[in-house]
Design goal:
267 residues; mainly alpha; 11 helices; transmembrane; ArtM/GltK/GlnP/TcyL/YhdX-like
């Protein structure tokens, strides 16, 4: 009987050991660093201002994702339309938004009153508060990226599905809702989940217009007590909590899709 000898991989084990040691040393150096006051971190970990900023961050991300998902779906359908005007309009919007930094877009929306003193009968500063400007900037930016994700998912569905739905007498909108989109989800969900995680972290950029998010709260506290590093570590902890919870949720959604037959055969 032939004996199977496992392939030796000394470099893999050596590399893993080196990385593990480096991570331990890094953790020890941070924990024992005399310039970090751990009681301050514990004091503000669950401070009311931090909790309010955390809630605002979640609300910002959810609202921006809703706007981005709706806008991205419309833009993707426009991009796949037979109308050259719709295709060019969608392509131009995606090119413009993805080609400019999100920080610049946030600053533009936050300072919209410098361009337009009034929006219809409303005063711009009254209407476009820092929170509203943050939601608009994040949502419109998210829409451009979701458009490409949605478009990739729709293109991944075999064209025969379109033809079969037409043969059954379905209108395009009904076929898209009943046949195409459910199958496209297996391609859309993974990158959409990753995009939402990026969005959660991108909410920190609205601190430049005092959007009331988690980082804004941490900066306001640190500007008063001068414990900058400690408050940044508090914010870092909560960002990690949010992204970890989102990643776990994404994992279970992908498993559910796989079990229902709309994903790749995971068990």
């Amino acid at each position: 009987m032939t004996r199977i000898v496992p392939l030796r991989r000394p470099w893999l084990w050596t590399g893993s050991a080196v990385v593990g040691v480096l991570l331990v040393l890094l953790a020890i150096s941070v924990f024992r660093n005399p310039n970090i006051q751990h009681p301050v971190i514990a004091q503000y970990q669950f401070a009311p201002a931090i909790m309010q900023g955390l809630r605002t961050t979640v609300v910002l991300a959810v609202l921006a994702e809703i706007i981005g998902l709706a806008l991205g779906t419309v833009l993707a359908l426009m991009r796949l339309s037979s109308s050259p005007v719709l295709r060019l309009s969608s392509g131009f919007y995606t090119w413009l938004v993805r080609g400019t930094p999100l920080l610049v877009q946030i600053l533009l929306w936050g300072n919209l009153a410098l361009l337009f003193q009034h929006i219809g009968p409303f005063d711009t500063n009254t209407l476009m508060t820092p929170f509203v400007a943050s939601v608009v900037a994040l949502g419109l930016n998210e829409g451009a990226y979701m458009a490409e994700i949605m478009r990739a998912g729709l293109l991944a569905v075999d064209h025969g599905q379109y033809e079969a739905s037409q043969a059954l007498g379905m209108r395009r909108a009904l076929a898209m809702r009943r046949i195409i989109l459910p199958q496209a989800l297996r391609v859309i969900i993974p990158p959409a989940g990753n995009q939402f995680i990026s969005l959660l972290k991108a909410t920190s950029l609205v601190s430049v217009i005092a959007g009331g998010d988690l980082l804004t709260a941490a900066e306001n506290i640190s500007s008063a007590n001068l414990h900058t590093i400690e408050l940044m570590l508090v914010a870092t902890f909560w960002y990690l909590v949010l992204t970890t919870i989102t990643s776990i949720g994404q994992y279970f959604v992908e498993r559910r899709l796989a079990r229902s037959g709309t994903g790749h055969g995971a068990r």
